[in-house]
């Protein structure tokens, strides 16, 4: 129990909360701009930005995120195709 209390005493909780609030405020206009877009459009925009910035070549984790996004887009397209066919 003493270790647990020590953890919280060493954390700058007001600073952490302030940072989270600032990040939320910085991203609010972007979230508002894209909130009405379909998820598929957001995924395509993100994939395009990743391609333009060679995101997948920077780090192995980035490559995995890029691959996961591509897989997600392909799955969405396949589901849409199946729904249209039915």
Mean pLDDT: 82
**Topology pattern, helix = H, strand = E:** HHHH
The poorly predicted ranges are none
Rounded to an integer in angstroms, the radius of gyration calculated over CA atoms is 20 Å
> Distance between the terminal alpha carbons, to the nearest Å?
59 Å
Largest sheet: none
Q: How big a fraction of the residues is strand?
A: under 5%
Annotate the secondary structure layout:
Layout: H1 2-10, H2 13-34, H3 39-52, H4 60-85
Please explain how this structure is put together.
It is a single chain. The chain is mainly α. The protein folds into 2 domains: 1-36; 38-86. 83% of the residues lie in helices and 0% in strands. It is built from 4 helices and no strands. The protein has helices at residues 2-10, 13-34, 39-52, 60-85. Helix 3 packs antiparallel against helix 4 (60-85). The chain is extended, with a radius of gyration of 20 Å. It starts with a helix and ends with a helix. The mean pLDDT is 82.
Write a short abstract of this structure.
With about 90 residues, this protein is mostly helical. The chain has helices at about 1-10, 15-35, 40-50, 60-85.
Features:
single chain; 86 residues; mainly alpha
């Amino acid at each position: 129990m003493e270790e647990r209390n020590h953890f919280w005493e060493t954390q700058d909780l007001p600073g952490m909360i302030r940072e989270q609030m600032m990040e939320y405020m910085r991203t609010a206009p972007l979230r508002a701009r894209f909130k009405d877009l379909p998820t598929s459009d957001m995924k395509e925009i993100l994939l395009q930005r990743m391609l333009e910035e060679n995101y997948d070549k920077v780090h192995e984790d980035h490559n995995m995120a890029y691959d996961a996004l591509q897989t997600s887009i392909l799955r969405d397209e396949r589901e849409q195709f199946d729904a249209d066919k039915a």
